[in-house]
Amino acid sequence: MKQYLCWRVMRMIFAALLFGLGVSVFAESINVKLVTSSGDIRFELYPDKAPATVVNFLKYIDGGHLNGGSFYRVVRLNNQEQNTIKIEVIQGGLSGVENAKAFDPIPLEPTNMTKIKHLDGTLSMARSAPNSGTSEFFVCVNAQPSLDFGGKRNPDGQGFAAFGRVIEGMDVVRRIQNMKTDTPAPGKLAYTSGQSLLESVEFISFERE
Prior knowledge:
By secondary structure, the protein is an alpha+beta fold. It has a single domain (2-208), classed as Cyclophilin-like (Cyclophilin, Beta Barrel). The chain has 4 helices and 8 strands; from the N terminus they run H-E-E-H-E-E-H-E-E-E-H-E. An 8-stranded antiparallel beta barrel has the order 1-2-7-5-6-4-3-8. A hairpin with a 2-residue loop joins strand 1 and strand 2. Helix 1 (2-20) runs parallel beside helix 2. It is globular. It starts with a helix and ends with a strand.
């Protein structure tokens, strides 16, 4: 009950912030377009279900912060032998870019609250600890239930904050996922070894439609 009440309060706060960004608190979705060096991807965001995450994402988009970012990591079934729980995603954002964390981290909106599952094309916020999401995000390739609340990919069991989905351009997502990645050095593999793109995919522009 306490978690639910906190969730309701957080939704009201971020609904007000959405209004400040020119988004109706009654809007079911917002469309944004990402132009990359490998093709265009269109996303549908869900401010009514994941207001905190959508507010954060729109702040990065509207401020032009994501322009010049990139997709830099891809996870396939054949490049994660070190990971017990397998997933398939492409990850992007501002990793390695100055001012990558232009805004404070946001509270985690877990899938048991938002009811947005990690399915094929789901857009979700990357994180380390809970409540640490900033500028990094990923797109699912095929259904990834281990990323939902209660899933085992993250040891804390909280899952990741899904907040949208691809509505056009999954062919681009799959093409990026299959691009060449680094070859891990012999010995003990790090968590992301073998998953860094040899040539990152640049974000040319990221805008609302």
